Amino acid sequence: MQTDWEGFYLDGRTAARQRARVRLMRSGIEVSTEGGLTFLWAYDQVRQTQGFYAGEQVRLEKGGEIAEALLISDAAFLTALHEVAPERRTRFHDPARRRTRVELTLLAALAVIGIALALYQWGIPLLAAFVAPRVPIAWEERLGSSVIEQLAPPKKRCEDQELRAAIDDVLKTLTAPLPSQPFTLRVIVVNDSLVNAMAVPGGHIVVFRGLLKRARIPEEFAGVLAHEVQHVLQRHVMRALLQHASTGLLVVALTGDVSGAMAYGLEAARTLGTLQYSRVAEEEADREGIRMLLAARVDPEGMVTFLEGLKRKEEDPAGLLRYLSTHPTTADRIERLRSLAGAPGRPSIKLLPDRDWTALRERC
Fold it and tell me: Could you tell me whether strands 197-200 and 204-208 are parallel, antiparallel, or unpaired per DSSP bridges?
C-alpha cells in the first residue's frame, strides 16, 4: 500500500506553492516541504474541500479563515487514506463510492424520464378524460368560435343560401329525435378542395367543399354529419384537444378562463388539422352515428357507401384526401358499420326529395 505521495503545500499567508512529500500515518498526515519543514496534521484537524469528483484535484485544509492547504493530484491518495486510517472514513470522500453515486444518479435520471413518459402516455390522457366532461359549455363554445375564426374565416365560407338551407334541413332531420342536448349545432362549409370534415369544440362542424362533392347523395352526406355530430356530443373533440394541445390549454380549461379560451384558438385550430381520435372514440362515433341515423329514419347505408367510395379513391397524388388520414376506413370498420346498420330494406325517408343534390353540391 502506498503511503508517500507528492503534492504541494500552501501556508495560507502567501500565494506561493511549495513542493511537499505527504505521508499517510495512523495518527495523521505528515508533511515535509522542500523548504525543510516537517509537521503533522491530525486527522480531526483536517477537512477536505476538493476532490469529490473524477478528475478533480484533492485539496485538504487545516485552520480557520486563513487556512493551510495541501494539494494532491492523484485521486488514489484518498483510497490510500481510507486504508491507513479507516476509522476516519466519514471525514474524507471515498472514491470507491463514486461509481455507486454515478449509478444512482443515472438511475434517478432514468426514473425521472420514466415518470415523464408515463405522465405523457397515461397521466395526461386520464386528466383530459376527467376534465373534458366538466368543461363549461360556454367556455367550449368560446374556444370553438376562436377556432372557427382560424379554420373558416368568413371570406373562405360557402354562403350560398340554397346550399345553406339544404344542409340545415339535413342537420335538423338528424337531430330532431335527440333528447335535449346543450350544444347549438352548426355546419360551416369551407370553399376548399380538401376532402375532409371535422368537429370543432362547442357544436361547430366544418365540412370542406371537396368532401361535399364526394357525397353522391344526401344520405352519404348525412352519414358524415352523424359521425361528426357524435364527436361533439360525446365530447371527443374536447378531450382530444386537451390531450394533444399544450398544457396551457388544459390549465385554462380547468380554471374556466374565458379569455384563455380565445387565446388558444390558433393552437387548437392547428391541432385539429392533424388530430386523430382514439380507436375507442372513432368506434363510439360510428356506433352512435348509426343510431342517430336509424332514429331519424335516414338510411345508414349512406355512411357505408361514402366510406367505400373514399376507400376506392385512396390514391390521392394531390394530397387532397385528408379525411382518410384522420378517419380510419379499413375493411373491418366498413364491415362493423354494416353490422350496426342491420339488414337493408328497413323503412327510411328520402332526404331533400324536392331538391337536386348534384346541383346543390356545385353551388360552392
Answer: antiparallel
pLDDT of res. 286: 94
- pTM exceeds cut of 0.70: no
The answer for residues whose C-beta is within 8 angstroms of residue 74's C-beta and 6 or more apart is 5, 6, 58
Query: What does residue 33 show for φ and ψ, rounded to 5 degrees?
Result: -90, 160
d(CA 277, CA 358): 31
Q: What is the DSSP string of 142-159?
A: HHHHHHHHHHS-GGGB--
Predicted pLDDT at 103: 62
Residue pLDDT, tens place only, 144-167:
898 899 889 999 999 999 999 999
Residue 99 belongs to what H/E stretch?
helix 98-118
Dihedral of CA 83/86/88/89: which sign?
Answer: positive
Give the pLDDT of residue 312: 76
> For residue 150, what are the contacts with CB-CB under 8 A and spacing of at least 6?
265, 266, 269, 270
Report whether 29 contacts 23 (CB < 8 A). yes
Residues 166 and 352 sit within 8 Å (Cβ to Cβ)? yes
Contacts of 304 (CB under 8 A, 6+ apart): 223, 334, 337, 338, 341
pLDDT of residue 119: 44
Closest by CA to 289, choosing from 238, 234, 216, is: 234
pLDDT score of 297: 95
How much is the mean pLDDT over the chain? 83
